[in-house]
Amino acid sequence: MNDKRHDLPAPLVAVDDPDRLTPLTRVNAGEVVCGVSGSNRTIGVRLISDNDRLLSWYEANWQPASSDEVAATIYAMTGAPADYGVRADHYRLWDARRSAVALFDCDSYAIVKVTVRGVCSAVRSDAELYAHGCAFEVTHRASGEVHGVLLIGSSGAGKTTLVSALMGDPEYRVRIVNDDWGVIDLADATAHFTGERALHMKARSVLSFAPEARGALSTIPTEGSSDPDDPGMRVLIEPATVFGYDSLADDVRLTDLVVLNRAAGDFGVTPDNPLAALETGAYSAYYQRAEPFFNGSLILDSDTARDRERHAFAALLTRVRTSWLWNQGSKDEMIAGFKQDILGAAVKL
After folding, report:
1. Closest by CA position to 118, among listed 224, 13, 239, 232
2. CATH class entry, domain 130-198+238-341
3. What is the pLDDT of residue 224?
4. Partners of 177 in the β-ladder
5. What would the pLDDT profile of 191-225 be if each residue is shown by its tens digit?
6. CA 67 to mean position of chain CA atoms
7. DSSP 8-state assignment for residue 319
8. d(CA 97, CA 99)
9. If you ran DSSP here, which 8-state letter would residue 84 be given?
10. Which of 115, 160, 135, 162 is nearest to 12 (CA)?
C-alpha cells in the first residue's frame, strides 16, 4: 500500500528509535490544542502543522483544551520526512513512547480526523472504549419503550440510511449522541457525546438527514469536492443543522450493540462467537483493508494493543444485547428488519 498518498488512511508504522521524531519538535509550525470528551476526562490532543487550513479545521471541529490536558500529539506536515530532518521511508509514523503520530505529505483533514480517533483509543483508560459507530436513543412514542443503540459497521454498510429513516419515522423519536464515533463508559455501557463543535461529515450523509441543508453546504468549509452528491465531499457542520436541536443528546445508556454488514449471512442471526467476529471486522473500501473491530482508525501495533481492545469489547458485550444484521436486500427490508429484530415491532414486509 502506498502510504505517500495524502488522502490514503494507511496504517501507521511504529518507530523503535525514541529520537526518530525529535526533529519535528524544532520545526516552524502552528499549534492548536483541542479536547475530546471521554467518560471521565477530556483527552487533549495537540495538532502541530505547517498547513493553516488543517489547523483552522481542527480548531473548528473540537472544543478547546489546555496544555495540561494533552495526552497525545499529531504532526501533520505538508512535506516529506526528509524535509524536516526525519529519517523514514514511511509517511505515517507512530511513536508509542510519546503518544505521537507524524503524518507527512498531509493536506487532508479526513486523515487528521482518523488519526485523532486512533490516538484517543491508544491513550484511553481501561474503563472506556472508543467505538466507530452511531450511538443513539430511540423511543417508541406510543409505548414509551426506549432503546439505546450503538450501530456499527464498515463504511457503506447502510448505517446512515438506517438512522436517517428512523428519524423520519413518526412512530419513533430518535436522539443522536455521536453520529459516527465516540466513547462508551464500560462500567454502565453509557455512550457520551465527544464534544464536537462541528461534525466532520460526508456531504451526502448530511443530505440524508437534512435535505434542506443543500443550500447551506455552499457557505461552509468543504474538502475533497464541491459537489454535494460526490461521496468525496466532506464538510464541517454544526450538529443541530444536521439533526435538529431536539434530536441531540449528551449521553445514552446502551441496551443494544447492532452490527450492520453487507457480507453474506442470515439476517438477524448473531455469530456463535460475537467477540471474534467483531475483532475480524469487515473489509472497508475507504481504508482498502479489513477494519478490526469495525474501526479502521485503531493503532493495533502490538498484541497488547489488540488484547486491550478485545477486553474492552468483551466488557461491553456483558452489558448489552448483541445483534447481527445483514443488509443484503432493499432499503425497506433493512429498516423493517431492524424494527422487528431490535425494536420488537410487528412489521409487514
Report:
1. 13
2. alpha beta
3. 87
4. none
5. 999 999 999 999 999 999 999 999 889 888 899 88
6. 24
7. T
8. 6
9. G
10. 115
pLDDT digits (tens, 9 = 90+) for 145-178: 999 999 998 877 889 999 999 999 999 999 999 9
SS3 117: helix
Q: pTM surpassing 0.70?
A: yes
Distance CA 261, CA 291 (A): 12
CA-to-CA dists, residue 241 to 75, 107, 229, angstroms: 31, 26, 18
Cell numbers at residue 323, please? 445483534
Domain boundaries, the chain: 13-123, 130-198+238-341
Amino acid at 223: E
Angle subtended at Cα 118 by Cα 260 and Cα 84, rounded to the nearest 5 degrees: 140
Distance CA 100, CA 272 (A): 38
Which pLDDT tens digit goes with each residue over 65-86? 999 999 999 999 999 999 999 9
**130-198+238-341 shares the fold of 13-123:** no
* Sheet with 222-223, side-by-side order of all strands: 199-202, 234-237, 222-223
Q: Distance between CA atoms of 308 and 43, rounded to whole angstroms?
A: 18
* Residue type, position 303, single letter: D
Backbone Cα Rg of the chain: 20
- Residue 29: all three cell numbers together: 509550525
pLDDT of 270 higher than 60: yes
pLDDT in tens, 7-37: 556 678 999 898 999 999 999 999 999 999 9
Q: CATH fold of 13-123, please?
A: Phosphoenolpyruvate Carboxykinase; domain 1 (3.40.449)
Specify whether the CB–CB gap between 143 and 177 falls below 8 A: no
**Angstrom distance (rounded) from CA 279 to CA 143:** 36
3-state helix, strand, coil in the chain (%, to 5): 30, 30, 40
**Number of Cβ atoms within 10 Å of the Cβ of 319:** 16
